[in-house]
Amino acid sequence: MQFATWNVNSLSVRLPQVLDWLALNPVDVLVLQETKLTDDKFPQAAIEAAGYAVQFFGQKTYNGVALLSRNAAQDVVKNIPGFDDAQARVIAGTVDGVRTIGCYFPNGQAPDSDKFVYKLGWLDALAAWLKAELQAHPQLLLMGDFNIAPDDRDVYDPIGMEGQIHCTTEERAHFQGLVGLGLVDAFRLFEQPAKSWSWWDYRNLAFRRNQGLRIDHILVSAALRPRVQACHIDKLPRKHERPSDHAPVVVTLT
DNA sequence: ATGACTCCCAGTGGGAGA
Predict the structure, then answer these.
(1) Is A124 a catalytic residue?
(2) Cα–Cα distance, A163 to A108 (Å, whole number)
(3) Angstrom distance (rounded) from CA A28 to CA A51
(4) For the segment A149-162, what is each residue's pLDDT rounded down to a tens digit?
(5) What is the DSSP string of A35-73?
(6) pTM higher than 0.90
(7) Which residues put CB within 7 Å of chain B, the nucleic strand?
(8) Facing residues of A92 across strands?
């Protein structure tokens, strides 16, 4: 089976691309971030017509997440239980026995900003919840737009971006905290091309120059790790004439 | 280089993203 994550940067703009991508890549599960749609405007019928059940949780202008699956998700959770959050960032469900958590991590804007404080608090809450989720659901996937580049090899200019947002010591420590819960970065289980990114700035001809960051991730639990066969970033949608700034990440399980 | 692009809500500009 295949599970994928994609930050679409507005589902109303990108819906045709999502449907085209699913036709070419008939994954079992796809989580979306930055749908930027209130639930009353979510294109549920079009997604169901493509053969997917869908759970969604959004808001106007910002954030918004969705969980698409061939088989319906069970025990759906929206946002982090017990963490009071005005922003729609998390959707979780159990699909084919795999606890699937789709997340749009806060951006954080700048290390000296209030948004960075919010990001760190959100990361604390996520880790505490995940610890309990892993106890309840050993077979677990955490995937989405983490807005964290875990390592210098995930950054096109690690010197220039040292200490900048996505690359700070605090953010990277939180990423390692998730690893400490027993999760592993599926992409790094395999040999990968150098300069593999999942996001490229719209500006500066960044995609053509391959200047980007790897900030979209799929983490798998220890119990699921033996089933992981492959993981890759699909750059093709980024070549579309009106692309999202992020590319999908796909993991293959037995 | 306090830039660059895209989206959104707004409303003929500005915030946010990363």
Answers:
(1) no
(2) 13
(3) 10
(4) 999 999 999 999 99
(5) ----GGG--HHHHHHTT-EEEEE--SSS--EEEEESSPP
(6) yes
(7) A 7, 9-10, 12-13, 34, 36, 60-62, 106-107, 109-110, 115, 145, 147, 165-166, 199, 201-204, 213, 215, 242, 245-246
(8) A77, A101
